[in-house]
Amino acid sequence: MHQHRSHVSSAHAADRADDQRDGDGSETIALNHAAWMTPGAFSELRLATFVHDEHAAHRPSIARLRAFSLLVALRPEISRIGLLVAISSSAANALASGAGESAMRSLIKFYPASSSALMLASSRHRRLLPDSKVSRAIAAFNDAVQEAMNATMSMIAERACGDDRCEPVSVEALAAAWREAANSTRNLLVATDQAIGDFQINGRTSEHDLLLKALASVSTGGTPFMSMSGTFAMPDWAEQRREPRIAVDCTAMLTSDAGTCTIRVTDISTLGAGIEGAGQLAEQARVLLIIDQSVTLPATVMWSTPLRAGIAFNRQLVDDDPAYRFLMQRALEEKSKEKPIL
């Protein structure tokens, strides 16, 4: 059971893997496709990613925009899995305090599964800025969550075996592992907030503060997600959007056909942003969002009122270089030409 594919082991694998775009335009890990890609095609894809990342790391104008893009992709994913870690830690603390089987079932129900977006953004950030505070926090987060998940799986296996064939795990050790995971998750969120703050962006919201408070509570043995009946559930403030946004509060410049004006950015994601103060904008108008000198984002107005507007970036913030798409498409074409095995 210790060898199950957890989100963290996959996260380490993502450091050795690169991505492709799936049907809805998002990025996915190409490691799963290495088996069917020809060695030549996969080598070319690996070389392209290596060259791209090396160029980004040594060109400040590119590296700063790249870092900003990865932080925008990373933060909501950390928050999503951080909430699962907080609930699991709450259940583990309850189990150590003598709670019944509902706590054990909750550990299974809220087992923190990862996403390709988290693995990809974290591995790319570590390649781009390996010595940064965020990258070090990512490494500690991966190790701590891996340890907690392994402890959970060992306890499940032990209870399923019912004999001495499985290595026993005490509820105290399980709770300690999850408390460390919660503490590492909180440290990663704080480090990410500080890194985003370097771009003069305040991304703290009431929901985010509630998550940080919950992680701090479970790190010291609290059970903030346990109801009076002993059950566990997602809080009402949990993010439910498929493409989570970061609620922010910062000023920026917006250039349109009407000229350049100072605006307020209210939320941002890898796909677009919500803005205030630009006045009535024409739908489908081309604009340029300028957060700082190195973060300039061409966009299209999707909707507008006299007070607020929504813009979609012309290119997804965390996107593939055209070379990636070309090489992946060629690999798919080579695969389609292969004769089926009868």
Explain this structure.
There is one protein chain. The strands form 2 sheets. The chain has a 6-stranded antiparallel β-barrel. Helix 1 (7-14) packs across helix 6 (133-161) and helix 3 crosses helix 5. Strand 4 and strand 5 form a beta hairpin. It has helices spanning 7-14, 39-58, 60-96, 101-109, 116-128, 133-161, 171-197, 206-219, 322-337; strands at residues 19-21, 27-29, 246-256, 259-268, 272-276, 286-292, 295-304, 308-313. The longest helix is centred in the first third of the chain and has 37 residues, at 60-96. The relative contact order is 0.14. The chain is built from 9 helices and 8 strands. The chain is an alpha+beta fold and 342 residues long. The two termini are 35 Å apart. The chain folds into 2 domains: 7-20 and 27-219, A middle domain of Talin 1 (Up-down Bundle), CATH 1.20.1420; 246-313, Thrombin, subunit H (Beta Barrel), CATH 2.40.10.
